[in-house]
Write a structure and sequence with these properties.
Blueprint: H1 4-12, H2 17-30, E1 33-35, E2 43-45, E3 52-54, H3 57-60, E4 71-72, H4 73-105, H5 109-137, H6 142-185, H7 198-204, E5 205-210, E6 216-220, H8 223-236
Helix pairs in contact: 2-7, 4-6, 5-6, 6-8
The structure holds zinc ion (ZN).
Length: 237
Amino acid sequence: MISRGSRLSKLKNGETQINLYLDNIKQILYKRVRCGYCGHVLRYRTSSSRNYYFCRTANYTDKYGCTSTQYSEDEIINIVKTVVKSYMDIILNLERLSTDLKQTQNTSSVQKIIARLTGEIEQLQSSKRLLYERYKKGSLDKETYFKDRESIECNINNKTLERETLSVHNIEQEEVLNMAHCFFGSFTQFQIGDEPNAEVINSLVESILIFDRDKTKVNLSFAEKLEKALHALNQSL
Ligand SMILES: [Zn+2]
């Protein structure tokens, strides 16, 4: 195990920032690396040549199919960093997309249709007033007046209903996009291409399940939120 003393002495000897930072990541992974088969936290061993993890369950039962393979710590760190970095880059790109979508939302085609319908409804209402004035003056007989008025009212009702449906849809769309934008926005403290540091990994990685040298599953704390945000974004496109 790396003791606090050894880390401090390394620091005094002019250890680089990168090594110090790798040390931090090691500390974090230590508690989160689990066996993919039995689910137990993997044991950690240090040696002068390399540090590694292994599943102790394999020593006393093969019930779960655990192996006694030693998994290099450096390899695990690289996998975790690669996975986190690729997710961060994807999310930051999606953040740009959601920002663009929000900016165009106000001038969206739906809003234009709503504005057109409003204009048409206003025009129909003024036609209805004019029709009444003509009837009052006696230039229209009662039957024609009722028939024309009914036709205009029917038109107004249809257009009002259409406008309301579109408005509700538009508001829902806005809320859905806001939710996605809020999630993606929580990543804007990072830049595309940033290397995830210990702090980032600490906050984003829930656990690492190791099945094999070639099969590792990195569970991310935001997976569920990302899925919802992606669904929301998809709806807004
Ligand atoms: Zn195991």
